[in-house]
Amino acid sequence: KDEAWNALQAPFKEQAAPYEKHWTAWTKSVQEDAPQNLKAKIKQFSVLKGNTDEMKQLTFIADSALGVAEKAAQAIQGTDKAAIDVHLNKALYGSAGKAATLTFSGKPRKQLCGNDANTAGEQAGKALLSDLLCVCAGATTDGTGGKTCYGGCDAAPNNGNWVVTNAGKERALAIANKCSEALKTQDKSTEVLNARLATFYKAVNNAKGSGQEVKHALGTPEGDGSGGCTGEGVSGSHTGRCVKYNDGSIISGTPPIEWQVNLRNAADAYDKRHTAEIKLAALEAEISLLNATATALLWAPKAFAAQTSGSNQQQTTTPSEKAKECEAIETDTNCDSKDFCTFQKESTEEKKCKYNETKATKTEVSLPQTQTGVGTETTTKKCKGKLEPEKECKSPNCKWEGKECKDSSVLVNKQFSLMVSSAFAALLF
Q1: Does the predicted model carry a pTM greater than 0.85?
Q2: Bridge-based pairing state of the strands 353-355 and 398-401
Q3: Three-state SS for 150?
Q4: I need a surface site. Which of 63, 137, 251, 316 has the fewest CB within 10 A?
Q5: Strands 240-244 and 217-221: what pairing?
Q6: Nearest to 3 by CA among 32, 23, 17
Q7: How many domains does the chain fold into?
Q8: Which H helix or E strand runs over 337?
Q9: Co-location of 242 and 343 in the same domain
Q10: 238 CB-side CA count, 13 A
Q11: Is 69 inside any structural domain?
Q12: Do residues 154 and 146 make contact, with C-beta atoms less than 8 angstroms apart?
């Protein structure tokens, strides 16, 4: 258990062949530092050690379960929520993510947002919130808009000019929080993003200005837009609240709009996470099925037979062999439960469990078929004809039903066989 698979030597390596595929996982499960709950679960199956057929089936089930665990690990790679949030924060705030303050030093607003009708702003397309400030943050003189692109935003932190050398993060978030609830969504899929981007491209491709001089821009430039995106929306000033994008970014995607790239990355990660959730649900059902199959294997009658007497035990056939078997039994209950033994408590001999030829003759017993796997039936009449449940219906596989003593092992084996067949048919097909 402490060696790597390649280090194993014959003949043990040949004996351990069924465990090769997941050897590392198997060995970890029996290490001293293995989780206690795992040790307890493995210990439950120790009853199967004497039964080769059941052990082979259990190995197959466990190997399949380890395969499911590997699929689950692969399915969730790169799908954690944190990865989605990283892309979303970069789309909102820029390359610095949530730590950004949206402070820009030494440059006027129009240089950041759009210098004139034909010159893109240096910050245009870098981050959604900086573009929002260009389009919506109003000047002190803005009365009708309430110091933004729509009313109701003239309270702090938006009660004055947007000074680009000061942190603009709080102002941008205050404006963004005024967006209509109907536009907000928890669905971050590529499908939803494409629908939102279609709206963006429709708006940005709509030329603006009195003579449609300003192309590939958002906002409200006045006149011919030659004064740039200064934030002053005064009629006739040729300025306004706007953001002017690079023509190539809109027409051909070169250079790409950075916040759009980050949104697509977030949507892609979201799609993978959603796909992983669907796959994990299917794998969960598969592992539950394997667990139920293993549990049924544990409680199958053959497992208990293996625990007490071992598998494929040679059938006692001659009277002398049966007599020896009876004499080896010490308790009256175990003795009387045998089809050919009787406990003679009045006997003065040390061994009181004796072979009873009359009892053996009355009880018809057929040899059990060779146990070749799950569901092999044991054909027996040992319970038939016993009419007193309290006195004679004592065999481990006998069960009193109505007025008859019936062999319960046959029914249980049939049910178990059907269950296992159905389980593995579901796994394979």
Answers
A1: no
A2: unpaired
A3: coil
A4: 251
A5: antiparallel
A6: 23
A7: 2
A8: helix 332-337
A9: no
A10: 11
A11: no
A12: yes
Residues 235 and 339 in one domain: no
pLDDT digits (tens, 9 = 90+) for 326-352: 988 888 888 888 888 999 988 888 888
Q: Enumerate the β-bridge partners of residue 335.
A: none
What domain range is 227 assigned to?
A: 82-256
pLDDT: which is higher, 75 or 87:
87
Domain assignment present for 380: no
Exposed, middle or buried: residue 187 (CB in 10 Å: 0-12, 13-18, 19+)?
Answer: exposed
Q: Of 256, 283, 299, at which residue does a domain stop?
A: 256
Amino acid in position 81: K
Question: What SS3 state is found at 132?
Answer: helix
Neighbours of 195 (CB within 10 A): 11
DSSP-derived pairing of the beta strands 353-355 and 341-343: antiparallel
**Residue 142: partners with Cβ closer than 8 Å, 6 or more residues away:** 148, 233
Residue 18 maps to a domain: no
Residue 273 lies in a domain: no
For the cut 50, the answer to whether the pLDDT of residue 323 exceeds it is yes
Cis peptide upstream of residue 11 (ω within 30 degrees of 0): yes
Is the C-alpha dihedral spanning 108, 109, 115, 119 positive or negative?
A: positive
| CA–CA gap between residue 81 and residue 78 (Å, rounded) | 9
Going through 183-228 in order, the beta strands assigned E by DSSP cover 217-221
Q: Are residues 237 and 348 in the same domain?
A: no
118 plus 207 within the same structural domain: yes
Q: Assess whether 231 and 108 both reside in one domain.
A: yes
125/185 Cα distance (integer angstroms): 22
Amino acid at site 68: V
Pick the closest to residue 187 from 261, 272, 259, 267 (CA basis): 267
Query: What tokens appear for 264 in the block?
Result: 């697509």
Helix (H, G, I), strand (E, B) or coil at 319: helix
H helices then E strands: how many in the chain?
16, 6
Q: Of the given ranges (221-235, 282-296, 379-393), which has the lowest mean pLDDT?
A: 379-393
Which of residues 256, 280, 307 is at a domain's end? 256
| CA neighbor of 307 nearest in space, from 52, 54, 59, 50 | 50
CB 292, CB 423: distance < 8 Å: yes
